Amino acid sequence: MRLVSFNIGGRKTFGALVRGGAVDLGARLGGGLWDLGLAIATGQYARIANEVKGAVADYTENEIVFDPVIRQPGKIFCVGLNYEDHRRETGRPEAKYPAIFTRFADTQVGHLQPLLKPVRSSQFDYEGELAVVIGRAGRYIEPGHARGYILGYSCYNDASARDYQHHTHQFTPGKNFPGTGAFGPTLVTADEITDLGPLRIQTRLNAQLVQNAELGQMIFSVERLIAYISEWTLLSPGDVIITGTPGGVGAKRTPPLFMKHDDEVVVEIEQVGSLSNTVRDEGERGSPS
């Protein structure tokens, strides 16, 4: 299945993409169940799968407004320096454990929604990444059992204000400006993908290929990330792990290549999807100018 969160006529709901458009599962399931994250957290997956079987689209894709796939994850874990080419281009040393930081849920935007270039940043950078959505709760998960905790996968652009990221050795400020985390367009359920390793992840800025790698080139695999994170916190349904970006980021190019107003950035992952956003300048009060 390809699950999606969307807005139709001002009403928030969620559904699945099928031939011809989107099935409105929020309306079909009823009971005030309008949010995909809530549906996952309350164990509605079987109902969702049953409803999608043979369903005819309620809306075309052109009629819906995409929201972040999981609108309000309880936890968003971001992984830094998780591809060898990116580690090398940053000059960082090899590490025994993954570098983990957090992103706030209210910084996210959906597919085809504007990424907001912070008014106070002149170094707004792209980061194409694979997002993993947790399907059931777990602690102390062994790597060999980790796939059983994955609901599915999506694309993420962990766009970064590099100047704020580098104010100190802590990444959080540069990763949490409003409207800078693009997430979508859909959540592809884990049963649709048998092997992540050979799948290619690419980022294009104004149609120029700027990042190009295979998911198997991660230093810490998805399974190892789940195992490590679950050692020190409870993983809950709807939590999101953003697994790191390949080399080729704008900050490490010569000359640097940063995103600006009206740029189009696309993150594409084989079998997962293609996430597209246009960059807009943030107004001084926090709205698009």
Keywords:
single chain; five-stranded mixed β-sheet; 6 helices; 14% helix; 33% strand; globular
Report on the architecture of this protein.
- This protein is an alpha+beta fold and 289 residues long.
- The protein contains 6 helices and 18 strands.
- The strands form 3 sheets. Strands 1, 2, 3, 4, 5, 6, 7, 10, 11, 13 and 16 form an 11-stranded mixed sheet that branches.
- A hairpin with a 2-residue loop joins strand 14 and strand 15.
- The longest helix is centred in the C-terminal third of the chain and has 11 residues.
- The radius of gyration is 18 Å and the shape is globular.
- Helix/sheet category: alpha+beta
Helix content estimate = 10-25%
Q: Report the sheet-strand fraction.
A: 25-35%
How many beta-strand runs?
Answer: 18
Q: Let me know the average pLDDT.
A: 95
Radius of gyration: 18 Å
Distance between the termini: 37 Å
Main pleated sheet: 11 strands, mixed
Element string (H = helix, E = strand): EEEHHHEEHEEEEEEEHEEEHEEE
If helices are DSSP runs of H or I spanning 4 or more residues, what is the number of helices? 6
